[in-house]
Design a protein that fits this description.
Layout: E1 4-5, H1 11-17, H2 34-38, H3 47-60, H4 62-65, H5 82-85, H6 88-97, H7 112-128, E2 162-164, E3 200-206, E4 212-217, E5 223-227, E6 232-237, E7 247-252, E8 260-264, E9 272-276, E10 280-285, E11 298-302, E12 313-315, E13 322-326, E14 346-350, E15 358-362, E16 367-372, E17 379-383, E18 395-400, E19 412-413, E20 417-418, E21 438-442, E22 446-451, E23 465-469, E24 482-486, E25 497-502, E26 516-521, E27 527-531, E28 536-542
Helix pairs in contact: 3-7, 6-7
Length: 543
């Protein structure tokens, strides 16, 4: 399969990006040398080594990758994906070497025996159970804010507070050290509940889900939810008087880390449901009211795997173009020297049947969320920017997407700010890098977004963006873990500010009990928010 690229106005950017879309089948695990694959684990499968590795993992790895290796924020899962398919020796080599630019420390300070024990646990962590995380020194809360000016942490988040970050506010790289402060997910405390603005009410719509991620409203009002870990799509139908689903069904299972969900064609009578698996876009015949898939998934487009694994799918208002997001494989690996990054950190476009696949916009590290403005037809995206430059770099962002636009990754960020890890590279790009519309708190992990087109919220909310901020791991004190509103002022255009709308998912001592990820407008105009920390869908209604 080949993918063509949009012809950019800048011939320089075209030269950099005009390459064949070939999914590499020969790239090794993090470019490990062939000799690494030949190294044998001397304690593979030994219960004592697995138990010791489990303890070491809890001490050194769980704060970022999650107690069960499920991944967190921008950090990939270890219990599935490339780590599980890699040779033991390749994993050992990478643990030893690390990748500081990508936020992965080198663990050469651990003895060889301990590194092999960690590898032994990683390879069986699905059955060996989750490790017990050990809180790092980074996780303690300083008495003063970790940032200044527009940069905040969770203690400052309050419904109704407006924020605005500009390019002029950005600090120098490494103004603070890079933190490793992944969330320790705890059960929701008895007195904890999401907080929102006066006049709005928060209720539980559904609970006890399995890693709910994207949530989408079908034309007939059914609510579709992608359970990424379980590999299925659930349907919630109807709503009782107390705001709960009247009916629940599994629409389809056996998918590969499903995320994106889209109905085609637009309008009241779709014929297909499109699903963004981590490795491909597939579609299934669909008619309004279907509670069970009426056919097997039909593959349309192969996609690269590994690294950032979410694949969003959206359609243009005229139904002629399918948009697909593909995040980077790493934090800041250079595509010039890392084949694993070729044709990633892009938004792709294609015909609805998967033909004419090409790059629509590039240099976008991880465009997790896509949405098309129903009034203007503009494509918008929600982006996880890079890590490891300090607490207050680089801002995540929400922006409309310019066709053929280049947004800087990995060489630059926020216009002409060069990433010091790529100092001196591609000076010809200066002045050609687009600055996003709305800069968010760095490390927020901005995920899904939607345009409010319901009728039950006050008129001032009509057409505004709501977005789920999953929460940080690379900041000394947590930030994010909220839902924000981006006002468009009934003009379709952002002016750079955003508002805290739904907060309260972090305990006073800094532990997280909830993590907003997916968001949709229900048929009754309420807002539904998928939370993969508490495995809940929250319903926000206006009273």
């Amino acid at each position: 399969m080949q993918v063509s690229r949009t012809i950019y106005s800048s011939a320089i950017v075209t030269t950099l990006l005009l390459t064949s879309f070939v999914l590499s089948q020969t790239a090794t695990f993090h470019s490990a040398p062939p000799s690494a694959a030949q190294s044998k684990n001397p304690v593979a499968g030994q219960s004592s080594a697995i138990n010791a590795g489990k303890t070491l993992y809890g001490q050194n790895c769980a704060s970022c990758h999650g107690a069960g290796g499920e991944g967190t924020g921008n950090i990939p899962a270890l219990k599935s994906g490339p780590t599980q398919s890699a040779k033991d020796g390749e994993v050992f080599w990478f643990i030893t070497k690390g990748s500081v630019d990508n936020g992965m420390p080198a663990w050469a300070s651990l003895s060889q025996a301990k590194r092999w024990q960690i590898v032994s646990y990683l390879k069986v962590m699905k059955t060996a159970g989750a490790a017990t995380p050990v809180a790092s020194a980074d996780a303690s809360l300083p008495t003063a804010k970790s940032g200044s000016g527009p940069f905040i942490d969770f203690r400052d988040e309050k419904p109704g507070a407006f924020r605005k970050i500009t390019v002029q506010d950005l600090p120098e790289p490494y103004a603070t050290k890079s933190s490793s402060n992944g969330p320790h997910i705890v059960p929701r405390p008895q007195n904890a509940w999401p907080q929102t603005l006066p006049g709005f009410k928060v209720d539980v719509f559904a609970s006890n889900l399995d890693n709910p991620r994207e949530i989408r409203t079908a034309p007939n009002g059914d609510i579709f939810v992608a359970e990424m870990s379980a590999g299925d799509i659930k349907i919630f139908r109807g709503m009782t008087a107390d705001g709960k689903p009247e009916q629940t069904a599994e629409f389809v299972g056996g998918l590969d880390e499903p995320f994106g969900i889209a109905f085609y064609p637009s309008g009241p009578n779709p014929q297909w449901i499109y699903i963004g698996n981590t490795n491909a876009v597939v579609r299934i015949p669909y008619q309004n009211g279907d509670l069970k898939a009426r056919g097997t998934p039909q593959k349309l487009v192969d996609l690269p795997t590994g690294g950032h694994s979410t694949r969003e799918v959206r359609f243009s208002l005229d139904d002629k173009t399918m948009f697909v997001s593909v995040g980077s494989a790493s934090n800041v690996d250079d595509p010039d020297t890392h084949s694993s990054e070729k044709n990633r950190a892009d938004i792709l476009a294609a015909n609805p049947d998967g033909s004419n696949l090409h790059v629509y916009a590039s240099g976008i590290r991880n465009p997790v969320g896509l949405a098309v403005n129903p009034k203007t037809g503009e494509l918008w995206c929600s982006v996880n920017e890079r890590d490891a430059l300090g607490d207050n770099l680089v801002p995540d962002y929400i922006t409309h997407v310019q066709e053929g636009g280049f947004y800087g990754w990995p060489w630059y960020y926020m216009g002409d700010h060069q990433d010091p890890r790529h100092a001196g590279k591609h000076p010809e790009l200066r002045g050609k890098i687009l600055v996003p519309d709305v800069l968010l708190q760095p490390h927020n992990a901005s995920l899904e977004l939607t345009f409010y087109d319901g009728k039950s919220f006050p008129a001032e909310y009509q057409g505004d963006i709501f977005a789920a901020e999953h929460g940080s791991w690379n900041k000394a004190v947590r930030v994010g873990y909220e839902v924000i509103r981006v006002p468009l002022h009934q003009t379709g255009h952002a002016t750079g500010e955003y508002e805290d709308f739904l907060t309260g998912f972090v305990t006073p001592d800094g532990n997280a009990w909830g993590r907003p990820v997916g968001i949709t407008v229900a048929a009754d105009g309420s807002l539904l928010v998928a939370d993969d920390g508490s495995n809940t869908i929250w319903r926000i209604s206006h009273q």
